[in-house]
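As a representative case, we now present a protein record of this kind.
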Amino acid sequence: MNNNPEWLSAGWPHIWLPYAQMKTASQPIPVVGAHGARLKLADGRELIDGVASWWTVAHGYNHPHIRKTVAKQLETLPHVMLGGLAHEQAFTLAKRLADMLPRDLSRVFFSDSGSVAVEVALKMAIQYWINKGERGRTKIVAFRHGYHGDTFATMAICDPDEGMHSLFKGVLAEQLIVDLPRDTATTRALDTLLERERRSIAAVIVEPLVQGAGGMKFHEPEVLARVAESARRNGHIFILDEIFTGFGRTGTMFALEQADLIPDIVCLGKALTGGTAPLAATVASERVFDAFLSDDPARALMHGPTFMGNALACAAANASLDLFEREPRIREIKRIEARLRSGLEPARGLPGVRDVRVKGAIGVIELDNLDRDGLRRRFVEEGVWIRPFGNIVYTTPPFVISEEDLTSLTAAMVKVVQDAG
């Protein structure tokens, strides 16, 4: 018997879901409410959310401070265009972000998704060189296992094997994808490329410490520092994609802090609003910004998403930053990290398990192979929402998750992986 709500059945013939083959896709699980780290289902059950709605819900669902702030903004000014007009939430948020980031990262451009934030960063980098009179510097250097978005420019800098390059070959721009400099050989290869292609490269982009959607692959701060040093030595714009890692996920407010470096451009999103509304930001250094200052209108950055700096989204982001300031989020992330290490360790050595790794509030069990759909169903049966992809089962829980729910989450991950083996 189908107990799904009427709105799901009525809308199912018309919806197009993300990352789904619609010919064989099952109807998704209807959610009617959420609080803390839990999702309330239409049938009355609750699931512990182990992925924080694609890594966004930092403070848990329906946090009263964010809800109250957004409600107040809704009553006064839900939205106004930033083209020639201004509102308090966007300008306040821009200053707060600049104050949080390392010195010189001081110019904030708002957009409404991580992919667009990266697109804007690439556009800034290429136009920087055009404005400097070097029109040939259009190539972007990125790294294998990286993921930077689903738009055409960002697909071109994702991993060429795991990403969507092959499907759109001939349409995507040909970029330079190399290995992270983890050892002498790969470090030398990166240095050689950046020097050889010096006059054609506009920027180097990397996800700091964790390559998220490319398989939750970790690297040490020293690796990140090598990328930064090589980019700097060869005069390239250095971009950090902190869409996933920003706002505490790796154990510090921003992953760049762990390598003690300052990029030319940083991209932020995901948890920026605490999972409440779409918002992203591309933050540039004064060095980059200054190249766009001119009496010539053609040298301006000609970009402007319709809803950029949306007042409701900026209000949510300001409220989220309030919570990072007022509540012990980084300490909570350290607690989660310790619990993930102890809770997932029993999976090490299970049949089919290749690796178990934890960093900050990220826990990963890597498998030789897996039945994603089958595992998802088993996790729901265990009362948790875990969405495996590639060859990993992972969790990125809300930072406010309780000890009890976190224990249930890790126990379910180990149990389902063990049963599948």
